[in-house]
Amino acid sequence: MRMIDIIERKREKQELTKEEIEFFISEYTKGNIKDYQAAALVMAIFLNGMTNQETTNLTLAMAHSGEILDLSTLEEIIVDKHSTGGVGDKVSLILLPLVSSLGVPVAKMSGRGLGFTGGTIDKLESIPGYQTTIEMEQFVKNVKQIGISMISQTLNLAPADKKLYALRDSISCVESIPLIASSIMSKKIASGAQKIVLDVTVGRGAFMKNKEDAEKLANTMIQIGKLAKRETICVLTNMNEPLGYAVGNSLEVMEAVNFLRGDMPEDLKQVVLELGCYMMQLAGIGKDLVENKNKLLENIKNGKAYDKLLELIKNQGGDIRYIENLDKFPKARYIEPLYNDKNGYIQEIDSKEIGKLASILGAGREKKEDTIDSSVGIVLTKKVADKVEEKEVLAYIHANHEKVLSEVKRKLKDRIQVSQHKIEKEKTILEVIQ
Ligand code: URA
């Protein structure tokens, strides 16, 4: 089999066979196919798409490119959660301790941020001492002992996805339905999830810019889940504006902690409750979705979810004094307010641009090797449709460098639009597909 023939067939819009896809994935993972040929094939897939059969074969080949975790020793149904990516998305930090406090076992491998989207692992690493890379046995032991562990995807899981994701990012081929579906589902299959709840984000700060594409992506992932015998539910959520108020690593950890103490921004609350009620249903601990939501809220009120977060952090070496007293987190050198200049209503907060600005401040990476500055980012004070007065603060910019601060301040002003007319609030939960 020759890679050049596979590229040519996809270029000519033909359907690749299972053998061709398996050849590409196994030889690319081993380093026998060079990036330039892989890039040509990925671009041909990006432009010409894939059939459901091809996408499924790609997913399974990627899932089997490394180890497949066996979580059967846990003797419980493992329900996993994954987001297709967003800005200000601190949902895992809140939702996973919360469902764990209700008895849903959580064995979660999270990713790092890339480009304008954030990653849960970078956020967890802003908590001093928290170990994101632990041995497999310890990971399983933690889930058995306290019902939750959250680590990074450093084990040899779906290595083909790691290589392909970096390649896609460098050749502008991220926003493709078969490529995103296979990337996410291969990781979920490899990490031993039996049931999966997916947060499929839609809008400016998401890879799917409109609902139709998000529905196609969701249906593709559900189909792959069916073939791989992993029941999958997709919740489509709005990512036009950042989720909650904080964008930046320790700033988002603080917002998550405050959420679990009862201070819940409405959009974040809706996403957490919607994903949570389905996780409980799939785990078999509650059929009634409304009742599940009430139980989730109850465990926030009675402090059990917050206690579970502390237990998780402590168990993984994190210093819980930072969580108990958020003032201990290192502050950025400058915390600069951005003032509004006319009375009106917030019309738009462009989440992709806010993500990019947070990245410029140091909260994200341009390249995989870049280091993160945990303390920097943007904390908004308003949501779309909120009323705003002249001279009111729209956001606080947390920066460590004066030059970057003035650049971000100038650009941020254009990214938060104020209208003189009343603005309708957009829906947060757009659809549930199962
Ligand atoms: N998240 C992933 O894990 N992969 C993608 O391709 C996009 C979002």
Describe the SSE topology:
Layout: H1 3-11, H2 18-30, H3 35-48, H4 52-63, E1 79-83, H5 91-100, E2 106-110, H6 120-124, H7 136-146, E3 148-152, H8 159-170, H9 177-190, E4 195-202, H10 211-227, E5 231-238, E6 246-247, H11 249-260, H12 266-283, H13 289-301, H14 304-315, H15 321-324, E7 334-339, E8 344-349, H16 351-361, E9 377-380, E10 387-388, E11 393-399, H17 402-415, E12 416-419, E13 429-433
Parallel strand pairs: 1-4, 2-3, 4-5
Antiparallel strand pairs: 5-13, 6-9, 7-11, 8-10, 8-12, 9-11
Tell me the helix content.
Answer: 40-55%
Q: What is the CA-CA span between the terminal residues?
A: 38 Å
- Ions, cofactors and other bound molecules: uracil
Topology pattern, helix = H, strand = E? HHHHEHEHHEHHEHEEHHHHHEEHEEEHEE
How does this structure look, described?
With 434 residues, this protein is of the alpha/beta class. It is 46% helix and 15% strand. It contains 17 helices and 13 strands. The strands form four sheets. Strands 1-4-5-13 form a four-stranded mixed β-sheet, sandwiched between helices. Strand 4, helix 10 and strand 5 form a beta-alpha-beta unit. It starts with a helix and ends with a strand. Residues 84-85, 111, 165, 179-180, 183-184, 207 line the site of uracil.
Descriptors for this entry?
434 residues; four-stranded mixed sheet; four-stranded antiparallel sheet; 17 helices; 46% helix; binds uracil
